[in-house]
């Protein structure tokens, strides 16, 4: 029997905002190399799960083990350094900086020189700056934005801003990538293109992916497994084909047209 590595293990996770139980006793295991979908109606708690995993919120209860290490309660930058990158439902970029500067800032964790070394421009400083520039340009090339490297981030069309956000997440050298509704606002053709793009990223960077998405076609095409949430609790888990047949999921989320 093949033994898979558990990259992420969430145990009995809860996050309450006053009386609102945004997540209640949530459990999830993702094996290395898999793509896992997180779906459910608006307000089900999906983004809160991303925010707790990435340290934006401290959990009320529970544990998050990433690469055999407890990360719940750690600061956001420390969690990113452990190897978790993310994109946001509402794109978050430094809109007044250039496309290249946005990626360079995200990749800053590779830098080891100190302020004095940068002030006198030591060989170490110049070497690391060059490496960071080259890495950032390579990432931009990978996502197809190399010709726009000097443009302001805010001037890019929406689809390109999404790709820039992914390049920024990749600059962190993640093992796990969290994608929050990457196909939001896309038509069917654009979402198909996004699916191929995500497959390409996965292969090139050897990533494991947790994705929140309302487009069921994207979930079906990409995910090995999915978890369906409603009111902060898991109502179903399984392959996309299994959950599409689940009466609870049809009732709470998908509606009758998905029922098989
Ligand atoms: N900072 C906060 N303060 C208070 N309540 C919050 C906060 N963040 C989220 N919530 C509440 O937690 C619940 C889950 O919200 P969350 O944004 O995680 O849902 P979601 O499944 O991501 O929804 P959507 O699909 O609309 O993005 C909602 O009731 C929301 O109002």
Automatic annotation (TrEMBL):
Tagged with keyword Chloroplast: no
Domain of life the protein comes from: Bacteria
Gene Ontology MF annotations: ATP binding; ATP hydrolysis activity
The UniProt record lists the keyword Transport: yes
Residue ranges constituting the ABC transporter domain according to the UniProt record: 8-256
One Pfam family hit: BCA_ABC_TP_C
GO cellular component annotations of the record: plasma membrane
Alphabetical keyword list: ATP-binding, Nucleotide-binding, Transport
PROSITE patterns hit by this protein: ABC_TRANSPORTER_2
Protein name stated in the entry: Branched-chain amino acid transport system ATP-binding protein
Organism: Tepidanaerobacter syntrophicus
Source organism phylogeny: Bacteria, Bacillati, Bacillota, Clostridia, Thermosediminibacterales
